[in-house]
Design a protein that fits this description.
The complex is a heterodimer of chains A (256) and B (220). Chain A is an alpha/beta fold and 256 residues long. Chain A is built from nine helices and ten strands. The mean pLDDT of chain B is 91. Classes of the chains: A alpha/beta (256), B mainly alpha (220).
């Protein structure tokens, strides 16, 4: 069990992201304890995906502070005080799964999962292979190990992408609307994998439109609108008895 | 042409000279394609630079060589360079430089286009597992881009081989130059040039076929 006093795994303090004059994220703070699942919900264009991409530096925040594990950084609009190598090392500890999978099409499922351990961690091929085989088995795709991505269904491709992220043994995994590009009948198999990860105590931040799933597995929730946090707290508090009119209006669409 | 009597025997009075000319043409094609690709890959990478002061001059070089006739480039290297900067270079080198830079300019665009055609998501996914930019290039982007570049590179090489016929204007004894000599010797331009065309066709048809095959390949 984690002790009460242990510092959160992920801490964001007043993160802002501007594109020129457009302010996509306006001072978002949140913290995720080790082993918990934090869900970010909100209407399209509310800045939730941008925030997620800031966390692994695919977007560089304009201002604010951020800490993941032992790595802390401060942004002040100037140059990021991290070398390209340090950024890469940081990203190796923060897994990310994308809406559009982005599997490497010239590699088999197994090679996709092996790529991080092989190229980034420089593990011997045999070791990387056994890690990858175990992960493909975990996401239920052991028999697809030699398939190329174009021969996988969307649900299978996304599960391989999850395995690829897990292969780096990340401290936190970021999920960016990972079921939004899937046919409805394939959503369940991907959610099942994420549910299993939450049960195993993986720290994760999940951006999603799957409200029922959020209620079921999230430990805490942030509701964003217009680049700011509207509601934030433990799941039952935020989604249980909704009083905020903006959140109420947002959720009503999912009940219809 | 009524009454014209074809005599192809006249075109092949000196098979040994044809053979020598063929060697010159193929040698020039091979060498200028090779060095052109080297120039093209380097220029193509520079075109992708984040820095405008690198991109701009390279882009200038590419546009100049893409947008002027190769004939003029060869003439310029051979006749104008000595006048302009007092540097005389032999005909074979002047012609080779023209052909190389011409190939290089087109290859640069093919290379740049191939890299650019790879989805941004591939970069993001590779960076997200902790790869350095050069690792992303080597492991993820180049393997995919190379497959897309091969057909246009083969096409450009086919053109390049035909373009070696311009060597004749600075008296490099390639197929075209040799054919011109045969014509002046035999007064049989129709036979000589027809034969020459067939020779180019025999060399290039299989290459073109290969390019088509590569275009159809869809394993990625």
């Amino acid at each position: 069990m984690t002790s009460e006093r242990e510092a959160p795994m992920v801490e964001l303090d007043c993160i802002c992201k501007n594109y020129g004059k457009l302010q996509a994220v306006k001072g978002v703070s949140l913290s995720v304890p080790r082993g918990e699942a934090h869900f970010i919900i909100g209407p399209s264009g509310c800045g939730k995906s941008t925030l997620l991409r800031c966390i692994n530096l695919l977007e560089e925040p304009t201002s604010g502070r951020m800490r993941v594990g032992t790595i802390a950084m401060k942004f002040d609009g100037g140059r990021l005080p991290m070398s390209t190598r340090e950024q890469a090392q940081y990203r190796a500890r923060v897994g990310m799964v994308f809406q559009q999978f982005h599997l490497f099409p010239h590699m088999t499922a197994l090679e996709n999962v092996m790529e991080g351990p092989r190229t980034v961690k420089r593990l011997p091929a045999a070791e990387a292979r056994s890690i990858a085989e175990a992960l493909l088995k975990k996401v239920g795709l052991a028999e697809k190990r030699d398939s190329y991505p174009k021969h996988l269904s969307g649900g299978q491709a996304q599960r391989v992408a999850i395995a690829r992220a897990l292969a780096m043994s990340p401290e936190v995994v970021l999920f960016d609307e990972v079921t939004s590009a899937l046919d409805p009948e394939l959503v369940g198999e991907v959610l099942a994998v994420i549910r299993q990860l939450t049960e195993e105590g993986m720290t994760m931040i999940v951006v999603t439109h799957e409200m029922a799933f959020a209620r079921e597995v999230a430990n805490s929730v942030t509701f964003m609108d217009g680049g700011v946090v509207v509601e934030q707290g433990v799941t039952e508090a935020v989604l249980g008895n909704v009083t905020n009119p903006r959140l109420e209006q947002f959720l009503r669409r999912f009940r219809a | 042409m009524p009454g014209y009597e074809w005599d192809f025997g006249k075109a092949f009075l000196h098979p040994d000279l044809w053979l020598t000319a063929l060697t010159v043409t193929l040698g020039y094609a091979a060498a200028t394609i090779f060095f052109g690709l080297v120039v093209g890959v380097i220029a193509g990478m520079l075109l992708l630079s984040r820095h405008w002061f690198i991109r701009t001059p390279v882009s200038g070089f590419v546009q100049v060589f893409r947008c002027t006739p190769l004939l003029i480039q060869i003439i310029w290297f051979y006749y104008a360079l000595p006048v302009a900067i007092n540097l005389t270079i032999p005909a074979w080198l002047a012609a080779g430089m023209g052909l190389t830079f011409y190939m290089g300019a087109f290859s640069a665009e093919i290379f740049r286009g191939g890299i650019m055609s790879i989805d941004k998501g591939q970069w993001q996914a590779a960076k997200a597992i902790g790869m350095m930019p050069w690792q992303v290039m080597r492991r993820v982007v180049l393997p995919q881009a190379t497959r897309r570049m091969i057909p246009p590179f083969v096409n450009q090489s086919v053109l390049q081989l035909k373009n070696t016929s311009l060597l004749s204007i600075v008296a490099v004894p390639d197929l075209m130059y040799t054919a011109q000599i045969f014509v002046s010797e035999t007064f049989r331009p129709l036979e000589v040039y027809t034969s020459l065309g067939v020779i180019y066709l025999i060399i290039l048809y299989p290459l073109q076929k290969l390019a088509k095959r590569l275009e159809r390949r869809d394993d990625v």
